[in-house]
Sequence to fold (272 residues):
Amino acid sequence: MSRLTLWTCVSHFISFPMALMRRIITQLVSRVLLGPLGTLHCEKMSSETTASTSRRKKLVVGLGNPGMTGSRHSVGMAVIAALAERLGASDQWKSDRHLSGEVIVSIYQDTQLVLLRPKLLMNVNGVSVAKAASKFSVRPEHIVLVHDELDKPLGKLAIKHGGSARGHNGVRSCIDCLHTDVMPRLRVGIGRPSGNTTVDRHVLGRFSKEEQTILSSVMEQSVELLLAQITEQKVKVTPAGGRRATQKRKERTPSAVQEPEEKPHRTDFSCQ
Fold:
């Protein structure tokens, strides 16, 4: 290779946007961690899992960073912990080296429920999710991802039925590793940073004392929404004007607001 050709290749490499470079590197790391599963996962899931079996299995994943369970970016893990407590299984977490995560296998009504807390960094959480889906034979449409949402203030929740990652690296990793974006998500609002605080510092920081007073309400409502999603129940929607009336009565029950239908469909909630 001539010096000119080498310099041309290097120049093209340097000119790549950093965000694109990070994503390429992340995808390469994910493929290495997944191994053969990275290319065989979808075919294996579709051929080995029957429809009747998959309906009775759900995988609920709390996205976050290991060792940072108290941070805003790991609020999904806090929700999963609250769900485990609600199921009376908070002492049943087991570390699984093959999955690179911690799991609980429980039964809720007629559903086999697998809870997962990945032990990988947020950007490669999808590796753990794909391995768990394969091990427990759970189809992607029956995997519920729980994660933080910058574009919603703390106290706001939303169910999103598939679609793009909307800039969330953990969700993007799951989409890349599962080769599909059909997974429903519970998006837990954490709000955007104020002042000169950077986004990275905001999401990796811990909730303030004021925020923690709202957080307990968020955890309670998040668990209710997850259980409704797991059993495929429809969430009750407050009629027009109902939210204002609820605020006047100062009830503690969070209100639900139905947005105009779109693809993918999304339902928003408020924790007050």
Remarks:
- The beta strands are 57-62, 94-96, 101-108, 111-118, 143-149, 156-161, 184-189, 255-258, 266-270.
- Residues 56-231 form a domain with the Rossmann fold fold (CATH 3.40.50.1470).
